Every structure is written in structure tokens, then in C-alpha cells.
Amino acid sequence: MSGSGAERAGVAPTDFLGVGWSWPVRVDVTGSFAMTTGVTEIEQAMYLILGTTPGERPMRPEFGCRLADYTFAPADATTAGLLAYEVLTALRRWEPRVDVQDVDVTPDQASSTLWIDISYRLRGRYDRRNLVVPFYVIPDQE
Fold first, then answer.
1. Which of the chain's ends, N or C, has fewer CB atoms near its CB within 10 Å?
2. What angle in degrees, to the nearest 10, is found between the helix axes of 77-94 and 38-51?
3. What is the pTM of this model?
């Protein structure tokens, strides 16, 4: 097989959005690793950053986001502010293809969920987007 992975996937090698393995990792109908491109690849990369705890990857121990540190925190405004800071810091450090505009975290005490709403723009483009990620906390036993 000739050509780079990007060329085989039908994407110009200069496209800064890139080509990556689909997440979760799976195989396609040809038996090769399923690939993803464009905005889908960026959103999957953002989920991967937020879902990885620093220290989880031995060869890159600082990679990820410290969301797991707040699993047992209350679903309140203080935790929401701390989560927004962690998400903003991690995405600015680890995802250079986006400009994070805002991170708004809304607590929902009824379900012990904090809704993380990430407003971002593809770098170098005017394409504004949102990504909403649920974060579940474990409430205190009363």
C-alpha cells in the first residue's frame, strides 16, 4: 500500500484537522483500524483528554485532565468552577487545533450530574462549536 494514512483516508496531508484512530478503537470492514477525520476526530480527541487521568499513561504522565479528582465532590457551584478550570487548562494545553472560548459547568443536584458545556472554535476558522460532556459525582451517603 502506498501513500500516507491521511492519503489512504481521502484527506489531504496538509489538513491540520488530521486523521486519527476512531475512538473507541475498532476495526473497519476491511480489517484495518477504523479512522476518523475532521471535526469528529477533534471531538474524540477532546473526549480522550477529558477522560484520561494524569499519570494514567506511563510514557506521558502529565497528559489528561484532573476530572477524576472531583468524583466525590458535591454537585455544587464550587465544584462547577473547579471543573471548568480543569477542563479549560487541559484543553488549552493538549488540544492545539481548537481555541476554547468558554467552559460553562451547570450542576444538576437531582441527578448528581454536572453538565460541562465547552464552547470552542476550530483554530484558524470561524467555525464555532459546542461539546457537552456529562460529569457524574457520587453523592454522600446520608
1. C
2. 120
3. 0.79
Q: Can you list the residues of the chain whose pLDDT is less than 50?
A: 1-7, 11-14
- Report in angstroms the alpha-carbon separations of 108 from 43, 75, 132: 24, 7, 14
Cell numbers linked to 81: 468552577
Q: Confirm if 29 and 44 have CB atoms less than 8 A apart.
A: no
Cβ atoms of 37 and 11 closer than 8 Å: yes
* Structure confidence at residue 1 (pLDDT): 41
| Sequence-separated (6 or more) residues with CB below 8 Å from residue 124 | 16
pLDDT on residue 10: 54
Cβ 106 vs Cβ 80: under 8 Å: yes
Q: Look at residue 108 in the predicted model and tell me its pLDDT.
A: 86
- Exposure of 66 in the CB half-sphere (CA atoms within 13 A): 13
Q: What's the full length of the chain, in residues?
A: 142
Name the E strands within 22-124. 35-37, 98-108, 113-122
Residue 90, CA atoms < 13 Å, CB-side half-sphere: 24
Quickly tell me which residue has 483516508 as its cell. 9
